[in-house]
Every structure is written in C-alpha cells, then in structure tokens.
Write a structure and sequence with these properties.
This protein has 449 residues and is α+β, with helices and mostly antiparallel strands. It is built from 18 helices and 12 strands. The chain has 4 domains: 159 residues, no CATH class; 30 residues, no CATH class; 120 residues, CBS-domain (Roll), CATH 3.10.580; 96 residues, 2-Layer Sandwich (Uridine Diphospho-n-acetylenolpyruvylglucosamine Reductase, domain 3), CATH 3.30.465.10. A hairpin with a 5-residue loop joins β6 and β7. α5 runs antiparallel to α6. It is elongated, with a radius of gyration of 35 Å.
Length: 449
C-alpha cells in the first residue's frame, strides 16, 4: 500500500498546533530581540530619556540596572519557548510522515532549526541592534510583567549560579577615559561633531593630565624686573615685550617678591606720582611645577590673579605660568594685537620633508602629519624630546632617526614602517628652535637609531 501524500496529511494537522507554533515562534523572537536590546542599550541615552520624561524610559532604566536578572529571565523564557517549539513540531511532523522516525527526525531538525534561526534569532536580533533604544522603551512594560511571572524560576537559577560564581562587588566604570576619547573620535568620523568640537573635547580630557611645567614659560625666557631697577628701564621692558604683568625679583630671580601690573605702573607715571615698585607691586602667587593645569585654573580664579610663579623642588624659580597658558590648552593659541603670529609653525619643504618649529607638541606633530602614535605618551615638545635623545648638547645638522610603525585596522593589510629623520636646523641659547623632518618608507637596509 502506498504512503499517503504528506501534503494531504498536512491538512489533518490540528489548527491549534499551527497556532501554538506561530505563538511560540513569536515568543522566541521576542526574547531574542530583548536580549540584544538590553545588552546593547545605551545607558546615557536612556538617562536622557528619563529626564525628558519619555514613556517607558523609567522602566527601561530599571531593567538595565538589573541586567543580570533580566538576562536570566530572557534565557529561561527563550529556552522554554524553543523546547516547546521542538516538542510540538515533532508531533506535527510525526502526523505528516506517518511515524517514519528517521524522516520525522531529519525534517523536524532541518525545518525547525532553519525557521528558529531566521525568524527567532537573526531577524529579531538584527532589528533590535539597529533600534535598541527605541525598542527598549516599547517593550519595557512587557518585560517587567515577564520578570514577575518568571521570578520563582529565575530565583532558582540565580541561586544555582551563585554556588559556582561569587558576585563581583567591584565598582565598574561603564566608560573609561580612553574609551571616551575613542567615542569622540568616532563621533567626529561619523559627522556628529565637527573637527573643532572634537579637538575641544579632547583638550578638556587632556587638561587634567597636563602639568604646569609643560605649559609654563621657563626661567631662561622669563622677562622680569628688579625691585630697584631704573624706572626708564622698566618702561622699555613693558614697551618692548608688551606684557601686562612682569615678575619682580630682589637681587636674584630665585627671589621673586611681587608682580608689577602695567596699568598700576603707568597710572603712577601719568599722574606724576613717585613710582616705587616695592609699594605698587602685588604679592606673588607660587605654584608647584607638578600642579595640574585644571587645578592651576581654579587656583588663579580663587586668588583673582592671572599670573603665578612656578617653584622648583629647591625653592627656586622654574618659570612663570599664566591663565592664558592654561586656557590655550583648551582653545588653542590665543593671540592679541601685539602678538607676532608665526604662520609657518609646520611647513612642507618638499614631498617628504617638513620644516617644524621645535616648540610644537610631539602628539600634535604626529597627529597633524598622520604619523601614528608618538613615541612617548607624556606631553612633550619636539625640542625637548630631541634634546633627551642626545648624550651631548645638540648642534646644528645633528640628526636623530626613529623607526615608526603605521598600524592598519584592516586585517588584510600589514603594518607599514617609516623612518622619521629629524635634522636640527636652528639652536638658540642651547635650545632647539627649528627642525627638519624627513619621512620615508622603511626598508631592511635602514638602521634604527
């Protein structure tokens, strides 16, 4: 006797079984979608939704705060749905193929695995990944009901888990500073913020890492007046350097005794009063050269002053630092009408050669020329970095060569290497002022310095 046609037997499957299969597939899809939604949820955005009083935001945030419990609920619900799907579908295929066990097993496995993968996993999870924040608001109420219904079962599984895994009570940081910098770079690449805004945000993050000695004017470049200096000589210094304030020292620059304000000084001259520097100067503010730049800003604001004397570990004077120096770390160079602006801070000399002002920060140079990561993480100027590479005092035409990797995030591309040759072109008072940089692809015959 011939076996009946499976298509004819399909018509004999009870409607309730078909409805159950569809419902269970939807339940499986819901739990799969929920798992992706709450695992990829942006907590910062949900906090903003709560503040904006969006419907479902508070419930979504409550669920996010209990993710361990939510995940267990989702896994329990998803597995129950999938097991029920497999059980009912086995009965359906048994009816269709008249209890031919091998065919039933193969058909049930192939058909249901394909259906569950496509409609219960891939599609809902892909959709959830694209719209996680929006979906979380809409399904948070349903998820809370499910969590209450499955609470006893979830409690059992969490208790079993606690027997094998101890709870981690360490405080975890959701976003580290390095990750925040990566987020800013990604936002810039995606067009959410422009280049200037990205640089400003990066500067704010870096401000706490900057120390006063990195932004101060060193003692050798410091313009100061002696407390008993001739009034005409002081006038010449104000006219020549166009500074609004000058440190005042007594006998030696290690003994700073005050700050002379240009306005106070010339007011006395205009009013034809006796100019006694020791009486019209303001008391100095001293700061450590290891003080952070953000702390410096707070200190200068609190003391209602714009200039501080930087002390070294021996009680001497390392230099001076101003409010403008600190703010320039946030907004870039600040020029006034008296400043000489150097437009050739970084100049391209030829295809592979650049002329560089040695006062440029090493990180800025490498970023500007797309040279990868700088060789040192500390914020240093190019001049100070090169000075540290030589055992003797630097001389004009002295060279330093660095082999620099250019990493690629494409797994099909190998890391490229370049040689960076720095040639000293100008030295002033034993300080490196101007440098030429030659960038060339590295070959095996090249030697690293």
């Amino acid at each position: 006797m011939d076996n009946p046609d499976p298509l004819l037997l399909l018509a004999t499957v009870p409607t309730i079984d078909i409805i159950l299969l569809v419902v269970l597939l939807l339940v499986s899809s819901f739990f799969s979608m929920s798992e992706t939604v709450y695992s990829s949820l942006n907590p910062i955005r949900i906090r903003n939704y709560v503040e904006e009083n969006k419907k479902g935001a508070k419930k979504a945030f409550w669920i996010h705060e209990r993710f361990d419990r939510v995940l267990t609920t989702i896994l329990v619900g998803n597995n129950l749905a999938n097991v029920a799907l497999a059980t009912i579908s086995a009965g359906v295929f048994t009816r269709i193929f008249m209890e031919r066990e091998t065919i039933v097993t193969i058909a049930n496995t192939v058909v249901m695995t394909t259906i569950i993968l496509i409609f219960g996993e891939i599609i809902p999870k892909s959709f959830a990944k694209m719209h996680s924040d929006t979906i979380s608001l809409k399904i948070s109420g349903i998820m809370m009901v499910v969590m209450k219904l499955l609470k006893p079962v979830v409690w059992v599984f969490l208790s079993i888990k606690s027997l094998f895994l101890k709870p981690d009570n360490r405080v975890t940081i959701s976003v580290s500073e390095d990750e925040l910098e990566t987020i800013i770079d990604t936002m810039e690449e995606e067009g959410s913020i422009d280049e200037e805004e990205a640089e400003m945000l990066q500067s704010v993050l870096n401000l706490g890492e900057k120390q006063v000695y990195e932004i101060m004017t060193p003692r050798v470049d410091m313009v100061a007046v002696e407390v008993d200096e001739d009034i005409e000589d002081i006038q010449k210094k104000f006219f020549e350097h166009q500074f609004s304030r000058l440190p005042v020292y007594e006998k030696d620059r290690d003994r700073i005794v005050g700050i002379l304000n240009e306005r106070d000084f010339f007011t006395h001259i205009i009013q034809k009063k006796d100019v006694i520097v020791g009486k019209i100067m303001n008391p100095p503010i001293f700061v450590s050269k290891s003080m952070r730049a953000d702390t410096l800003i707070e200190t200068l604001q609190r003391e209602n002053t714009h200039l501080a004397i930087v002390s070294d570990e021996f009680g001497g004077t390392s230099g001076i630092v101003t409010m403008e120096d600190a703010l320039e770390e946030l907004v870039g160079e600040i020029y006034d009408e008296h400043d000489d602006i150097d437009d050739e801070f970084l100049k391209k000399v030829s295809e592979h050669e650049y002329g560089i002002n040695a006062d440029i920060e090493l990180g800025d140079l490498f970023e500007e020329l797309n040279l990868g990561n700088p060789p040192e993480k500390e914020e240093k100027t190019l001049g100070s970095y090169l000075f540290d590479q030589f055992e003797s005092l630097p001389e004009v035409d002295l060279t330093f060569t660095l082999r620099q990797p250019m990493y690629s995030y494409n797994h099909e591309e190998e890391t490229k290497w370049f040689t960076l040759t720095f040639i000293i072109k100008e030295i002033k008072e034993r300080r490196i002022k101007y440098v030429h940089l030659v960038v060339k692809p590295y070959t095996e015959g090249d030697e690293d310095s």
